[in-house]
Design a protein that fits this description.
It is built from ten helices and two strands. It has helices spanning 3-6, 15-18, 22-33, 38-47, 57-82, 102-117, 122-151, 153-161, 182-186, 190-209, and strands at residues 9-10, 89-90. Helices cover 64% and strands 2% of the residues. With 212 residues, it is an all-alpha fold. The protein has a single domain (3-10, 20-209), classed as Up-down Bundle (Four Helix Bundle (Hemerythrin (Met), subunit A)).
Length: 212
Amino acid sequence: MSRKLITGLRMDPRAPERASGLGVRIGYSLGRVSRHFGWPMLLILLVLPSSTRILLPKQQLLYSFFVLLLAGLAFATRIWSRGYSSGEQFVVEGPFRHVRNPVQVSYFLIYTSALLFFKVNFLVIFLVLIVAFVWMHLRSLCVERNFYLNLGPLFLKYKERVRIWLPSVIPEMNRSGGNFNPIRSISPSLYEALWLVGIALVYTIKKRLGVF
């Protein structure tokens, strides 16, 4: 696949209007509400009670380490992804060689670590993550449909070689470099900045109410 043909191509703005299929139409509608399930997750974090289970010191240490490790992995994936792509842009470099949807993967890990940080019941975490996954997957179907409408066989060839959610350890695309933008990688988007502010507000409100 020629990198010159596909790297950095942007979608035709009329493409969403031509998208078809129930899942795609639902994904497009969900995207109008929230592109990455951001503010619904903030509301969920705000209203869900924290677990009252008391952990032993060693258990608390391991729990905190796991949450930090998961959050670190999430932000590392996000930084790596943003360094190669900004917005809904089609690229096959960096993390996109391993998985088609690294940005959504990073958000999913961030949401998981946030739910664990606020000590939500594990069963509730599982149910919330199912909802988040379905939401983001339907949104991804919409985006990928638009890529197909613009790129046709080129995107299908990429789709056949790279999975949408589960990364492959061995890259499915040839190595290419030179397009990583370190400034863009560490610069938060407006969405990410607002979400971090939202997390801080959720934490402050829960602390003030004495429920966390």
